[in-house]
Amino acid sequence: MAQINQPSNIVDQVVALRREVDELRKRVGIGNATISGGTFTVQDNGVIRMVDPDGHLILYFGPGSDGKQIIRIRRDGGSDVMYTYTTDSGRQFWALTDGSSDIVASDDAASGTGLARPWIPVSFEKVRFADWPKITNASFETVWEANFQKTHPFVQLFTVEGCEGGTNGEGQIVITDAAGQATVAESWSMGPGLGRNRRGPYALPGRPYAGEVRVAVNYRRTSGTGSVVGVAMDATQRQT
After folding, report:
1. Contact 74, 57 (CB under 8 A)
2. 3-class secondary-structure state, position 168
3. Torsional sign, CA 110, 115, 118, 121
4. For FRET with 214, which of 74, 131, 145, 159 sits at 20 to 30 Å CA-CA?
5. CB of 98 within 8 A of CB of 74?
6. How far is CA 128 from the centre of its chain?
């Protein structure tokens, strides 16, 4: 006569089956998952990791070697793109890196404010009137010129300019693209006296890092016997 399963036998079988299913889930992993209207939370020093087929760590969210939470993003192959680290003083900083893992942009961890890299140049110009260029030519002369790689869509600058008594003149901004095509971005007239003026912002041609862009500040005398004077004090590439 065949043995009849008792309730205790059925419970044991269910428990064993659930244990096998749980183990299978651990081995297979999650193929697809959707969170709708809820929250995915990792706590108690849990970690989110992504590893490429070659075993390189590509994405890491979790505790670092010092126990503090960090973020690390890497390129295919394992070189850094972005990470947060902690200095010896205990302050965290973020950093963006190039293909050689050199830092190209980061915040200043020492002070907690502003950028650490890149270092942004600050220009100085002569401010004594006697040291400024004097223009008497009736044709436009390029008095100030900047050649640079485009990194932002616009550029703006400040000029201080004017004419000596009884004299008038004109100024203009000329922008030349990487192919050598020049465009007059702005022209203006000047009379006796000096003034500080913001010029632009002017749209820069071409794509970023696609060749040198040239911005020229030109002046000429249109009437009188005195001089036209002009100084390009500073310029900044900027966002839209």
Report:
1. yes
2. strand
3. negative
4. 131
5. no
6. 36
User: Which two tokens mark 207?
Assistant: 């794509």
Determine the Cα angle at 219 with ends 180 and 188, to 5°.
95
Give dist(CA 72, CA 60) in Å, integer: 5
How far apart are alpha carbons 38 and 40 in whole angstroms? Answer: 7
pLDDT per residue of the chain (240 residues) written in tens, 0 to 9: 555 555 567 777 777 878 877 776 666 666 677 888 888 888 899 999 999 988 899 999 999 888 889 999 999 888 899 999 888 888 889 999 888 888 889 998 888 888 888 888 788 888 888 899 999 999 999 999 999 999 899 999 999 999 999 999 999 999 999 999 999 999 999 999 999 999 999 999 999 888 899 999 999 999 999 999 999 988 999 988
Q: Letter for the amino acid at 177?
A: D
pTM assigned to the model: 0.69
What would the two tokens of residue 87 be? 């200095």
203, β-bridge pairs = 154
- Return the number of other C-beta atoms located less than 10 Å from residue 112's C-beta: 10
- Tell me if 163 sits within 8 A of 224, measured CB to CB: yes
